[in-house]
Amino acid sequence: MVAVIAAVTWALFAVGDNMTPGVTPFSQDVYQLHMVILGIVTVIGVLVFAAMFTSIYLHRKSKGAEAAQFTHSTKAEITWTVIPILILVVMAIPATRVLIDMEDTSGAELNIKVTGYQWLWGYEYIEDEIQFYSALDRDSALARQIGSGIDPAEVENYLLEVDNRVIVPTDTRIRFLLTSDDVIHSWWVPDLGWKRDAIPGMVNEAWTLIEEPGVYRGQCTELCGKDHGFMPVVIEAVPPEEYRAWVDSQKAGMAASTTSGAVADSGPASP
Predict the structure, then answer these.
(1) How many CB atoms lie within 10 A of CB 224?
(2) Of 162, 218, 161, nearest to 22 (Cα)?
(3) What pTM was estimated for this model as a whole?
(4) How confident is the model at residue 271, as a pLDDT?
(5) Of 235, 232, 186, 227, the residue nearest 210 (C-alpha)
(6) Which position among 102, 176, 231, 262 has the lowest Cβ density within 10 Å, counted as fewest Cβ atoms?
(7) Are 187 and 196 in contact (CB under 8 A)?
(8) What is the pLDDT at residue 269?
(9) Higher-confidence residue: 42 or 4?
C-alpha cells in the first residue's frame, strides 16, 4: 500500500506538467500550492479506493461473509468527522496565505488600466499617460476567415498574437485595473498565475511582478460574444531600461501624431 501511494505521488510530482509554474513569485506559490493539494488528494484517493476494493475482496459473499448488523457507532462518526476537518485545516493554511497575497495590490510601481471591448483590449498606462488598443493580429484575422485559403497551421501563434503588445518592465510590481465597456470579459495570462473578470461598471484589481524577460500569452476566458475566441492577450516583459525607451518612443509617436493633426486642422480650406 505504501509503495502504491509513493509511486503515484512521485509520478504526479515528477511529471509536474499539469499546470505551468509561471514566471512570477506569486504564480510559483500557486503552483506549489496546487502540487501540495494534489498530493494530499492523491493519497486520500489511493487510501479510500484501496480500502474499498480490499474490503470487497476479503468480505465477498462467496466466502460466506455476512454484513454487520449495527446501526450506530459513535466512534466511527467522530472519526469520519474529525479526520476530514483536520485535512481541510491543513489545506486551508497555505491556501489562505496565497489568497491574501493575491489580493494585496499595495505598493504598485506601475498601474495599467485594462478595458475589455467586443472584441479587443484597451490599455492605459496611468503614470506614463500612454494608451492604445490591442486586437488580433492581421495574419490570424485573415486566416480565420472562411474561404481565406490560408492554412492556420502555417500562421505563427495563430489566434495568440496581437497588433500591439503590452510592454511591461521586469522586476517591477505592477497593478492591473480591469473593467469593461460593454459585456463581461476575462483577462487571463496563465504565466502570471491569475485571471480577473472585466465587468462593466466595476474595477477589479490584480498585481504581478515578472522576473524573467519574455513574451507571455493569454486569452479572454469569458464567453463574451461571437468573437470571444479572437481576443488574445500578449505581454512582453523587458528590462526596465528597455521599458523606459519604449515609453519615450510611444510618447514621441503620440506627440508627432498630435502635431500633424494640428497642422492638418490649420491648413488652407479647400476651394
Answers:
(1) 21
(2) 218
(3) 0.81
(4) 39
(5) 235
(6) 262
(7) yes
(8) 46
(9) 42
Listed in sequence order, the residues at least 6 apart from 59 whose beta carbon sits closer than 8 Å to its beta carbon are: 65
DSSP of the chain, one letter per residue? -HHHHHHHHHHHHHH--SS---SSHHHHHHHHHHHHHHHHHHHHHHHHHHHHHHHHHHT-GGGT---------HHHHHHHHHHHHHHHHHHHHHHHHHHHHHH--TT-SEEEEEEEETTEEEEEETTTTEEEEE-B-HHHHHHTSTT----GGGSTTTTS-BSS-EEEETT--EEEEEEESSS-EEEEEGGGTEEEEE-BT--EEEEE---S-EEEEEEE-S--STTGGG-EEEEEEE-HHHHHHHHHHHHHHHHHHHHHHHHHHHSPPP-
The predicted-structure confidence for 168-194, as pLDDT tens digits, reads as follows 999 999 999 999 999 999 999 999 999
Q: Residue 210 is placed in which grid cell?
A: 515578472
12: its cell numbers: 504526479
Whether residue 246 is preceded by a cis peptide bond, meaning omega within 30 degrees of 0, is no
pLDDT, mean of residues 248-262: 81
